[in-house]
Design goal:
- The structure holds 2 protein chains of 2 kinds.
- Chain A has helices spanning 2-6, 12-18, 21-37, 42-53, 58-74, 85-91, 94-119, 126-130, 132-150, 153-156, 158-173, 183-189, 204-210, 215-245, 253-258, 268-273, 280-311, 329-336, 338-354, 361-384, 386-390, 394-428, 434-452, 463-473.
- By secondary structure, chain A is mainly α.
- In chain A, helix 5 crosses helix 12.
- By secondary structure, chain B is mostly helical.
- Chain B has helices at residues 4-18, 45-56, 60-63, 73-83.
- The radius of gyration of chain B is 12 Å and the shape is globular.
- The N and C termini of chain B lie close together (9 Å).
- The A-B interface holds A 174, 205-206, 209-210, 317, 330, 334, 341-342, 345-346, 349-350, 353-355, 357, 361, 364-365, 368, 419, 423, 426-427, 429, 431 and B 17-18, 21, 33, 36, 38, 41-43, 45-47, 49-50, 53-54, 59-61, 66-68.
Chain lengths: 476, 85
């Protein structure tokens, strides 16, 4: 049964069955159950049904869903509280409705203006055409600052829009938006398939290349999507099991029933919060287990979003693909959070690499990696923390920034060394096998475990606390 | 530039040295996106760029060539051709 599910998208009989009316109904039913289990937005489930029936209208339907998402984002919460309608309607004064309409209109106008600008890129002022991303980020940062002051929610969407719009303008600047229309871009700027500030599925070009053009390709994509959604459930169960058996969490029925067998090992956050004496093996175990924990969470989250994309007919890469089996630091970076890495590579790495022709190849790669894994990474997270950025609390900002900068600096250095090593290995045609492969995997776990402790939440853990924990791992 | 068949052969030989372990370029069509197909990862693109700059004197910035254009065998060959006087 498991084998059948794992390779269903490769099996001709399964792919053919999914293309029949009964098969489509079965896929929708299975998909809807899985999406409800994963608590996916109702609009996604509705869009999935419509795309199944009218696949040739896919982008148009997803654009409608995008407008629905924009409006839904700003609806007063009380509208869904049916039991309290009489009171709620009294409570929802004109001010709140005015806020809803203002936010919806502003967000819609900003998004439409961005697409219109991309579609008429050649007519934009010369400075904007030369520096489209610089202008975009300056405008969105200004909007974010204004939003922080006025509390107008529409403006606070800037970090969410920033990276998707960057892909849009990059496509426009390269001339590849020619011949496209609103519907080709709106569906990924406000994606019904979900996401964070990181654009899963990247932008127009990758989604366009990944889109199913035939009934067979669509069927394969849907089966691959169902597989990921099921895998996400399996991983969710594993994570709950780990929380219960390893960390002794008792806030779930599973945790309560397994409590007597729990190892009750602290997490790294527990150790940072209460640095009580723990044996060395427990500290190291917590470090490695935290890496497994964060990887499982990343995989679950990404599988659901990529699963949705595939159900809709965009057969894109997974966000997380077996990173714990990586044999090099750069390979882990590629497999752990693929769409974030791609964002950093496309928007920071390549431009820096292009502009540093004066440097030697090794230095050039270092400059590009620093631009991506350090500068880009810090900037991305800084913009995400708008309260810190515009809140005026300098101390809080520094205590957030310094550990993040240490993490990003170490990550960049590790990736650089790993890339140089990988290049050398590929030139020689060698790769670690057997015991050497195990040792390489252990090295990757250790590196990422050690740097991850610099970004363990909450950010209030200071540099000194994190440094002390690091020293304690060496028995000091 | 040498004849197209020879240039392609040389390029495929080079790409073989930066391909992901276990990936082959045998039978890969010229228009296939090598990153989407999983043959190379996006960071391997830097090796393609260095190869073009050092081996073929291609100036990507001056030529207005986007890295995305270098993700297929055909795209790389076109970039070389455009830069050849």
């Amino acid at each position: 049964m498991i084998a059948l599910l794992l390779d269903a998208h490769e099996r001709r009989d399964a792919v053919a069955a999914v293309q029949t009316a009964g098969g489509k109904a079965a896929v929708w039913a299975a998909g809807a159950v899985l999406l409800v289990w994963h608590d996916v937005h109702a609009l996604m489930i509705a869009a999935f049904a419509l795309v199944l029936v009218f696949p040739e209208r896919r982008r148009w339907l997803l654009m409608l869903a995008a407008f629905g998402l924009i409006a839904g984002k700003f609806l007063p919460n009380a509208i869904f509280d049916f039991s309290a309608w009489p009171e709620a309607f009294a409570g929802i004064g004109g001010q709140r409705w005015a806020h809803f309409f203002a936010s919806t209109v502003i967000a819609t106008v900003v998004i439409l203006a961005l697409v219109a600008a991309a579609l008429r890129f050649e007519r934009l002022p010369a400075f904007v055409r030369r520096h489209p991303l610089l202008v975009l980020h300056a405008l969105l940062l200004a909007a974010l600052a204004l939003g922080a002051v006025t509390r107008l929610q529409a403006l606070l969407l800037a970090p969410y829009l920033m990276w998707r719009a960057s892909y849009l303008l990059k496509t426009a600047a390269s001339g590849r938006a020619a011949g496209t229309s609103m519907q080709d871009h709106l569906f990924y700027l406000v994606p019904v398939f979900g996401g964070t500030n990181t654009p899963y599925g990247k932008g127009f070009e990758y989604l366009d290349r990944s889109e199913a053009r035939s009934a067979e390709a669509f069927a394969r994509s849907q089966l691959a999507g169902l597989k990921l959604l099921v895998l996400a459930i399996v991983l969710t169960f594993l994570l709950a099991l780990m929380d219960a058996l390893v960390h002794g969490r008792t806030d779930t029925p599973l945790g309560t029933s397994l409590a007597p067998w729990s190892l009750a090992l602290p997490t790294v956050a527990d150790l940072l919060a209460s640095p009580a004496a723990q044996p060395l093996w427990a500290r190291w175990s917590s470090l490695y287990l935290d890496l497994v924990h964060v990887t499982l969470r990343m995989a679950i989250w990404g599988h659901v979003i990529v699963g949705c994309l595939r159900l809709l007919g965009f057969n894109v890469f997974r966000n997380t693909y077996r990173p714990l089996l990586s044999r090099s630091i750069v390979e882990f970076w590629n497999r752990f959070y693929y769409y974030f890495k791609e964002l950093l590579v496309e928007l920071f790495f390549y431009p820096a690499f292009y502009r540093s022709r004066w440097a030697s190849p090794r230095l050039r790669i270092l400059i590009a990696i620093l631009a991506a894994a350090f500068a880009g990474n810090v900037y991305f997270h800084l913009v995400r923390e708008r309260e810190l950025l515009f809140g005026g609390d300098g101390e809080a900002l520094v205590s957030f920034l310094v550990p993040r900068m240490i993490y990003c600096g170490l990550l960049a250095l590790g990736i650089w060394l790993s890339m140089l090593r990988q290049q050398e290995r590929r030139r020689q045609g060698t790769s670690p096998t057997g015991f050497a492969a195990l040792r390489a995997i252990a090295g990757v776990w250790t590196f990422y475990g050690l740097i991850h402790l610099w970004i363990v939440s909450p950010f209030e853990f200071g540099v000194a606390q994190r440094w002390d924990f690091l020293l304690s791992l060496a028995g000091l | 530039m040498s004849d197209p068949a020879h240039a392609r052969e040389n390029l495929v030989r080079f790409l073989g040295t930066i391909a992901r372990p276990g990936q082959s370029l045998d039978g890969v069509a010229d228009d296939v996106n090598l990153i989407d197909a999983g043959v190379i990862d996006s960071l391997a693109m830097v090796q393609i760029i260095v190869h073009l700059e050092q081996g073929h004197a291609v100036d990507l910035l001056a030529g207005g060539i986007d890295p995305a254009e270098l993700s297929s065998i055909g795209g790389i060959l076109r970039a070389i051709q455009r830069s050849t006087p």
